[in-house]
Structure formats: structure tokens, C-alpha cells
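Researcher: Before we compare anything, I want clean individual predictions. No alignment, no superposition, just each chain on its own. First chain goes here; please echo the sequence and then give the C-alpha cells.
Model: Echoing the first chain and its structure:
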Amino acid sequence: MPVGRPAISILLPVYNGALYLPEQIDSILAQTHRDFELLIHNDGSTDGSGEILRRAAAGDSRIMLSSETINSGQKFVLRELLSHARGDLIMFSDQDDVWLPDKTAKLVAALGDASLAFGTSQLIDAEGTAIGRTIFDHVGPPLSGRNQIDFLFRTTVSGHALLARREVIDPGLFMLDQPFDWLIGVVATFSAGVVHVPDAIVCHRQHTDNQLNTFRIGTRRQRRHPTSRRQQRLLRLHDALALLRMAPTVAPEKRRAFAKLHQAILVALKSGASRSMFDGKLAQDFADALAALHIPPAEQLVALKAFAKICRGPLHPKTLRDAFVARLAILCVTF
């Protein structure tokens, strides 16, 4: 057991990761910034992961290992690992990636007074060969503190590439359906801000067993029905606003602006409009929120266009209302 309290807690859920796990653990233990603890949970693996993890824990006192015989899922495990983390800074690790040795050091150096710093995810194939692309080639250029409002509509922060202050990671984040790294990025953005560190590199492996973030080079994703996509984006916006209105790290005046906008969206849904919930009133409510958040005028126009796009059209308000009510029960209990 390490003596003293580590600066960083790295959370690593494992499920049947034996094929790539040794390389990833070695890359974490080889970080030039050594003041960390590595909390690993074996989530019911049925391959050789358990033995790999036991050997690793026996060889390095920075590793804290726990295990279960049943598979509970990534978000449940992360919530549990967070409850045992002792560091003021939190990092997340996938079981099949590879971290460059100075990744952690560069994120720590760049963090400054910000709430979150994130690096660049270079894509590698199953054998570890560089594909020649990054995640940003697929999700768009990295966002930073200067385009805050964009974080409500898209994310470029990946959990495996970030370093965040623990205060912006509420355990309730892992109870929601939305990507936890996006929610952390949203809260951090409107707290003390987000910093991108281009040369803090994690090699993000692409293979057939990826559960998330699989970018198929040269193929197209199946196009979903536009209504379902719009509903999902609106649900994501709802969850972000619900978090922001309660997050203690967000300034009170910002929380009030988010609370008013969140309420305006709920009121629009309750109106029961059969084809569109977007009207002049909701547009003005959104514009008022942007002004209260001191968003620059040029960014306000872009954000209003994005907001209108997801609020306009056949959104089936009853379906959305039912989904929101289910979320409110979780939010009231966990935050």
C-alpha cells in the first residue's frame, strides 16, 4: 500500500481484457509522472484477466485491485472505483489502449487552474500499428474554453484521454444514459474551463471487441431515422442542463441561467405540440440564457441554429416527456 495520498487516481474497469491488458498496465506504470494510484476492478472476467491483474498488483504497490464474479458494467464499476479514489485528480483508462510515457505529466503541467485537461487519441489497429488518424478526424476539431456553448451539442473529450479535478465528477454522472466523459466535459467547461493538450497522447486501439468509440476507417455508419436522432440530441441537452443547474462548481448565476432554460424546455414539451416544440418563446429563452452566460454574439448565432435544429420537427413530445420524467427521479436521488 502506498504511503501518503496520491495526487492522481486512475480508474481502470476490466472485463475480458487479457489480450491487451498487460501492455496497457505497463504503459500506465511507466508514466514519467509517478504520483498516482491505479484502481482496477475485474468485472467478472472469464478469460485470463484475473491472473494478469493479480501479478501486476503483486509487483507494484500503486495498484489497488478488486474483483467480482458477475459483470456489472463499465459505469457501475467506475462509480464504485471513484468512491475509493484518494486523489484530487482523476483519470480513466480503457483496458486495451496504450499511453505514451509523458501523457500524464503533460496533462498535469497544462491543467493550471482549469477543471479538465485532455489529450489526443491516436488510433491504432488491433496489432498496435498507427492508423494515421485521431479521434478528432471523426468527431471534429477539439473544443476548448473559448467555445463553451459548443460543448452542449457535441463533445471532443474522451474519457481515456482526460485528467479532471474530482470536484467536477459527481457520482450521479454514471447513473445517466449519456456518455460520462461528455457530461464531465460539460460540467468542467462551465466550471473553471477545459484545456486541450495536443501532445498528451494515448493510443486508442480499434478492434472487433471495442464496445465504444469504434471508428471504421473507409466505411459509413448506418444512418438512423432523423426523428430518433433528434430526440436523442434533445435528451442529451436535457441531461446536461439538469446537471449544470445543480453542479456546485458552476457559478450561481450560470446555474440560474441553465435552470431557466431547462424549465423552458420542459414547458415547451408539456405544450403537447404535435410537430414542433420550437417557437419564438423558446428561442428567446435560449437567447436570454446565452446572454446571461456571456457567450459572444457570433457564437450565440451558431448555438441558436443548433438548438433550433434539434427542437424543430416531429419530436413526439409524450415520448420525450416520459423519458424526462424517468431521468428526474435519478437526478433527484443522486445529485
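Researcher: Okay. Second chain, same rules.
Model: Second chain and its structure:
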Amino acid sequence: MRVRELEKSDVGDAVRILVLSFEKELNFIFRDIELARELFFKFFTDYNENCFVVEEERVLGFASYSTKKLPISKLLRKELGLVNGFKTSLLISYLCPKPKKREGVINFIAVSPLRRNRGLGSHLLSKIIENARDKGVRRLKCYVSLENDAGIGLLTKFGFEVDKMVDNSFAEKYFGQRQWYLMKVEL
């Protein structure tokens, strides 16, 4: 098993895993899962900063974190038009907010559904933490649904604690889940 930076040749497999892992949320955001797949393929073909894959002969997991605002807004406005692109960008920034100084935000950790519970998510999270420390990040944050027991368990295993609980109708309307934890760990 090997964790490494995302390469252009990995993007198709990585996006497939991302879409499989977050199909429900992406359907709420884009209303068209194939459109989401196409847009993420375009985005990650050009953007691979702080993106990692885990592989065993092929890509089995994909993860990303940010230390600054993700530059996806421009692509969304170009592909979806000004109004729909802006709306979609706002929805993504709700779960992947712009980090504060010396902070990082985990955008996602996605593992192929058939390969879960084998430590792949742990390897990806370990790489994110190592990379963030090397870059001088002092705190990592991540939003996770209260319904995502595996995600909460993974973050807790690495020392993340609940910073606050978000309970609002906006999240329910646009992501299908009303309650989320904002979890954080000091590095």
C-alpha cells in the first residue's frame, strides 16, 4: 500500500471514488451526478495541491485538504454560468470553508466502497497530517455528518475532537443532513 500525491493519470479513478463516496451530497449540490463527475475531473486535472491517493496496484482512495480557499469557483462559474456557478460554489464552500491562517481544512477522504475498513482512510489521513505539519499548519478542521460513524471514528482515532455541532435547515435542504460536527485537531 502506498500513499502519494495525485497525478494527472490518477484523476479518473480518483474522481470515480469521490463520486461513489459522496453521491448523496453531490446529488444535492449538482442535481446531476454525471455533471459533478465531469466538473471534478476538469478541476482535479488542473489542480492537485494537497491531494493524495492511496494505491495497491490501482487507486483505491483519494483525499484533499486546503490551506487556502479552493479555486473551484472560477471553473463552476465558467461551466454553470454566473448564477448557478456562484450558488454551487457557495454550497461547496459551506463544507470546505476557507481556512484561517495556519489552519487546514480537510475537504474529503474518500475510499472505494469495496475497499473500506482496511485502513486506507487512516493512511490518507496520516499523510494529510504529516503534510500539513511540514507546511506549518497548526490546526486541521473537518466537517462530518453526525450520520457518518466511520468518518467520526476515523477522525477521533487521530485525535480530532468536536469543536461544535452545526444544526440547521440549510444543511438539511442542500446536503440532506441537518446535523454536522466541525471537528478539529491541534498539530
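Researcher: What stands out in the second chain?
Model: The first strand starts at residue 2 and ends at 5. Additionally, The first helix runs from residue 11 to 21.
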